[in-house]
Amino acid sequence: MIGVLGGTFDPIHNGHLRAALDVHQALAFSELRFIPLNLAVHRPQPQAGAAERRAMVDAAIAGEPGLRVDDRELSRPGGSFTVDTLISLRAELGPRLPICLLVGGDAFSGFFDWHRPYDILDLAHLVVMQRPAASPQSDLARSAVFERRVVTQRAELEQVAAGRICFETVTQLDISSTRIRRMLAAGQSPRYLLPDAVIEIIDRESYYATRN
User: Fold this and answer.
1) pLDDT band at 43 (very low <50, low <70, confident <90, very high)
2) Any idea what DSSP says for residue 170?
3) N or C: where does the chain have the smaller number of CB atoms within 10 Å of the terminal CB?
4) Cis link prior to 44 (omega < 30° from 0)?
5) Those residues with Cβ within 8 angstroms of residue 128's Cβ, 6 or more apart along the chain or in another chain
């Protein structure tokens, strides 16, 4: 069973990393893939380029067992739709391996607004990363298909390749890439918000200071 986490990662920060590691450890994935998007569909485009964001994710997860970067979206032209990425993963990994798509609570709340949401559920499980004591708030959570898909045990995710919904409580760190970019543009230090290895790359290459 593998996990996948997509995002702009512009830049990747400790909020991404801690939540992902929480789920990786709780569900004991064989690997967890970070998939930086190429072209955003429902949000502003990333400020840092594809190679730059790939380098920052590489630096952020270096040395952490089971974590890796998957650059399939960066090498695919056009908008980065989750369903296309999962189709590509299925072609690589086959139909039987359980794939767990990690999503935040806010993303889950608008799941029916995603491109081809039911096809996504046919291709992968959803693992919703939520804050302690939170309850699911989404149209999906109120739909007829929701109750029969929800599971609470890792073994239930392993039994089938896709289609289940699991909620995992994760450490909530109030960190945003937008805030980090603003700090960098203002000449402020973002230390303790993202890994030192990522800060070193940003400082050396002046990614955000030159793009704001």
Assistant:
1) confident
2) -
3) C
4) no
5) 103, 104, 105, 108, 136, 165, 166, 167, 168
CB atoms within 10 A of CB 38: 20
Q: Edge-to-edge strand order for the sheet containing 150-151?
A: 67-69, 31-36, 2-7, 99-104, 125-130, 165-169, 150-151
DSSP SS3 for 69: strand
**Among candidates 95, 143, 96, 98, which has minimal Cα distance to 118?**
143
User: Which DSSP string corresponds to 95-109?
Assistant: SSS-EEEEEEHHHHH
Superfamily assignment of 2-174 in CATH? HUPs (3.40.50.620)
Entry pTM: 0.92
**Taking CA 156 as the corner, what is the angle to CA 131 and CA 65, rounded to the nearest 5 degrees?**
65
Residue 201 — φ and ψ, nearest 5°?
-65, -45
Ranges of each domain in the chain: 2-174
